[in-house]
UniProtKB/TrEMBL annotation:
GO molecular function: hydrolase activity
Organism of provenance: Flavimaribacter sediminis
Domain of life of the source: Bacteria
Record protein name field: Metallophosphoesterase family protein
Domain called Calcineurin-like phosphoesterase: residue spans: 1-219
InterPro entries with a match to the protein in the record: Calcineurin-like_PHP (IPR004843), Metallo-depent_PP-like (IPR029052), Pantetheine_PDE (IPR052963)
Amino acid sequence: MRIFAVSDIHVDHEVNARWFNGLSEVDFTDDYLILAGDVSHVLGEIETVFDRASRKFARVFYVPGNHDLWLRNETQFASSLDKFDAVHDLADDVGIVTEAHHEDGLSIVPLLGWYDYSFGAPGNILKSAWSDYRLCKWPQGHDDASVTRRFLAMNEPLPDMPAGNKVISFSHFLPRIDVMPRRIPPHRRFVYPVLGSDSIDAQVRRLSSHIHVYGHSHVNRNVTIDGVTYINNAYGYPKETRISAKRLVVIHED
């Protein structure tokens, strides 16, 4: 059994949808897939991906990304939290796993999250350019920091890990900013405040994760920091061929 990971497949883009739809229906039937958020901003597209992924892989694990909670033309939802509930209902309907799973010496643990500006304060460029500020709608009294706290609280209590298990956790958002490579030029770093939260990594550490998969940044990465291997395998937007590998990646194999 192999465990594959990918995030940010953005099947709103036709070329991305063709790639995902073209994945074999026979090659992965004994394997698991970690799908670390940003499937689509369209609920119907998310449902289609869930259905097809559940037929291609033995088990699929998922956490939502920010795009998955956008409210662009979906007036049936009062807030992005309502859409979050609808996405989870779709996952449940087809057997997509959104809770901790333990088997045969292995634990796979999804971690919800958002961004709380622990990576820095947003500047004027970010405030004017970041689509979440227009397309995510929160209930009155909520802001990004409180949304982060809400999602992190939904991970609690963290599950007890069976003794000796290899622990693989995953989130959509970055658990720490130093997973970003040093090569990122300063003028690109204005997005850092909305990439994730240090509090996610606090939960990763409490789980004693061996591997943590994340997405969101679209910058593919495999780096070990203080004993945890952090892996980002974002498929990304069609033109992001330099920073994204555009393929599934095996992160564990029995």
